[in-house]
């Protein structure tokens, strides 16, 4: 038993020596260093190596995830920028409360208070004229004289005829008186007396007719003198000495000799839009201005209106009378008449370049909650660069300036408030 144990121990010693021999030889082959590098036992251990691998793997995964995050964030930013760029930017303004102006200015046509063409009432030749265009005349002034030789001869003949008729009537009267005296003595019959009485009455009627004819011709002869019918200005003279004058308007249309206008007071006719017609009343004051003299303001008074809306123009014809004693206005002038209108409490004013004319009617683009709404509106007054809106808008609305024709309800937009409130 002991011998066997020794044999086994001998084998172990030999094996241990064989294992140590190569190590000794390898150590002999490796040169020795005075200071060998320290070795971390944790690193060389299997657990340390595993930890290093895990750390490297986690770092690699974190780097990959961070890169994916950066790429996703960049994509989101690009998508957001693209979406923002796709949203239409529009300029908006807030409507101004109330009306832009307290008056309504409309064009008017100036006419003379009395405008009369003057014709000849008798035939003849123009002998003289005494006033030319631009002349101020008074009622009763002699404007011209017409020679009427035919009328003069007819008048002479009619007067002679009147004398003959008067003589016959006198004779018939004497005869009738004689026969009445004879009838009282029963010297003549009643029939004969009545006959002479009837002749006298007929002769008297003939005298009256002749007198009427003489008066007619005398009146016709008086038309040789063409007289101004009222105070005014001669604005036209269409005749000269020696012209053949036809009575009235002639056979080929009117041919006036003079045209006379009364200019101390003028009439101005204005067409008021139907929407403002209820604000115009007879007796209200108005102011007349003219581009030729913009600093001059002429007061006027509304004296009458047509009291009916013209179906073709949808306007009310109004007459404004103006005192023109100083002659600052001329008939036919183009003027503007300013009417003071009462303010409308719920009205607002917006620029004219906000209006959209669509087939369904007048619309205005309003931004509400970032989206467009096409709102129907009603126009009150038109001021040119701005309009008064009587319904459809409030002062808090954001109205789009210069809307495009493609603007539609529901579009998302980015509003930018314009610098000037209520103006473009």
What is this structure, in a nutshell?
With 424 residues, this protein is α+β, with helices and mostly antiparallel strands.
Q: Which CATH top level class of the domain at 122-244 fits?
A: Mainly Alpha
Radius of gyration over all CA atoms, rounded = 59 Å
Question: What is the string of helix and strand elements?
Answer: HHHEEEEEEHHEEEEEEEEEEEEEEEE
CATH level-four homologous superfamily name of the domain at 122-244: Helix hairpin bin
Name the poorly predicted regions.
1-35, 420-424
* Quaternary structure: single chain
User: In CATH terms, what is the fold-level topology of the domain at 122-244?
Assistant: Helix Hairpins
Strand-pairing-aware structural class: alpha+beta
User: How is the main sheet built?
Assistant: 6 strands, mixed
- Overall mean confidence score, pLDDT: 81
Number of helices: 5
Q: Helicity, in percent?
A: 25-40%
End-to-end distance = 123 Å
% residues in beta strands: 25-35%
Q: Shape from CA axes? A: rod-shaped
Number of strands: 22
CATH architecture assignment name of the domain at 122-244: Orthogonal Bundle
How would you explain this protein's 3D organization?
By secondary structure, the chain is an alpha+beta fold. It has five helices and 22 strands. The longest helix has 41 residues, at 46-86.
